[in-house]
Amino acid sequence: MRKVFLGFIVYALAELALLIVIGQSIGVLNTLLLIVATSIIGIYIVKNKGMNSVQKVKNTIARGEAPGPALVDTVLNFSGGVLLALPGFITDLVGLLLLMPFSRKMFQPIFYYWMRKKMKKGQFIIVQK
């Protein structure tokens, strides 16, 4: 629990320092406009790309194929959009990395590893209708 708390403190301080540096570099108003713009873009991506990704997963399942890769892409796209919607430049950077197809491939093995670990511990449940 202490590691998580410490991680949040370090993240918040790094984000604040970056906001101050960028604010001094391009101006406070431009910094605020940039934060608002990336938030709007993130919300748009979650809404539109998220629905397209969910449809791809449904189509994959309808064809009788395992939805693994399509499901992982959906989760990573959604996560990237949410991170873009959150205010801050560090979250924007990670969100953009998750949205770009060439860099998303770096995160796929990490996500698969995390998912397998959760499934082995019984912390990941799949509900079928």
Short recap of the structure:
84% of the residues lie in helices and 0% in strands.
User: Helical element count?
Assistant: 5
Main sheet attributes: strand count, strand direction, barrel closure: none
Give start-end ranges of low-pLDDT stretches. Answer: none
Q: How far is the first residue's CA from the last residue's CA?
A: 36 Å
Structural class call reads mainly alpha
Task: Report the mean per-residue pLDDT as an integer.
Answer: 86
Helix content: over 70%
Order of helices and strands: HHHHH
Describe this structure as you would to a colleague.
The chain has helices at residues 2-26, 28-62, 68-85, 89-99, 101-120. The chain has 129 residues and is an all-alpha fold. The model has no long low-confidence stretch (mean pLDDT 86). The protein is globular, with a radius of gyration of 18 Å. The protein has five helices and no strands. 84% of the residues lie in helices and 0% in strands. The longest helix is centred in the middle third of the chain and has 35 residues, at 28-62. The protein has a domain at 34-120. InterPro entries: FxsA (IPR007313). The chain crosses the membrane at residues 29-46.
